[in-house]
Amino acid sequence: MPEQEENISDETINVCPLCHQKTLALADRETEVPYFGKVFIFSMTCSNCKYHKSDVEAAEKKEPCKYTFEISKEEDMKVRVVKSSEATVKIPHISEIIPGPASQGFVTNIEGLLNRVKYQIETLRDTAEDDEDKKKAKNLLKKLLKIVWGQEKQKIIIEDPSGNSAIVSDKAEKSGLKVKTAQ
């Protein structure tokens, strides 16, 4: 069931924080993610230097959460994923996407998430100077392909202190997340 797009704001143009040109388009929209609820998607993209930042925020306050999902078949590639910029995505023995200033929020599916990881690994492979690092990257890419084809099982874990993330599937295990508080 696809998301229902409800409201798209007019884009506004501002000064880009990187190139300082007045070419930064700001946009936000509301959309309904089935079995998760209404979310706001915010984005900014510079048409000059291609800077891009996006985030997702649930309309209602959510508790810190942890989702664990095991990919076991090709159909799992279609499972919806909501990831806020504050979330950490762990794909054990393959990769980790950690929050930080460059972290993006997005709504995608398992395949889209794995494609993001694939792109990171391809970049590492293509820029690695050490043959051993290139070989490791190639092996990780082969493993990812087997996962996408449903030939190999793989866990995906999303931990989000803001609660603005989810793996929308009956197979996903949701639990609370202990958040460290500043003292």
Number of domain modules: 2
CATH topology of the largest domain, by name, is: Jelly Rolls
Our Rg estimate from Cα atoms comes to 18 Å
- What is the CATH class designation of the largest domain? Mainly Beta
Whole-number mean pLDDT: 88
Number of separate strands: 13
Shape, principal axes of CA atoms: globular
The parts where pLDDT drops under 50 for at least 5 residues are 1-5
- Report the helical percentage: 10-25%
List SSEs in N-to-C order. Answer: EEEEEEEEEEHHEEE
Binned strand content: 35-45%
Largest sheet: 5 strands, antiparallel
Name the CATH architecture of the largest domain.
Answer: Sandwich
- The SS-based structural class is alpha+beta
Keywords:
183 residues, N-terminal domain of TfIIb, 2 domains, alpha+beta, five-stranded antiparallel beta sheet, disordered N terminus, Jelly Rolls
Description:
23% of the residues are buried. Residues 1-5 have low confidence and may be disordered. The protein has helices at residues 110-127, 131-148; strands at 4-8, 12-14, 24-33, 37-46, 52-58, 65-71, 80-83, 88-91, 95-97, 106-109, 154-160, 166-168, 173-176. β3 (24-33) and β4 (37-46) form a beta hairpin. Strands 1, 2, 3, 4 and 5 form a 5-stranded antiparallel β-sheet that branches. Strands 9-8-11-6-13 form a 5-stranded antiparallel β-sheet, with no helix packed on it. It has a 3-stranded antiparallel β-sheet with strand order 10-7-12. The longest helix has 18 residues, at 110-127. It is built from 2 helices and 13 strands, in the order ββββββββββααβββ. It has 2 domains: 1-60, Single Sheet (N-terminal domain of TfIIb), CATH 2.20.25; 61-178, ZPR1, A/B domain (Jelly Rolls). It has 183 residues and is α+β, with helices and mostly antiparallel strands.
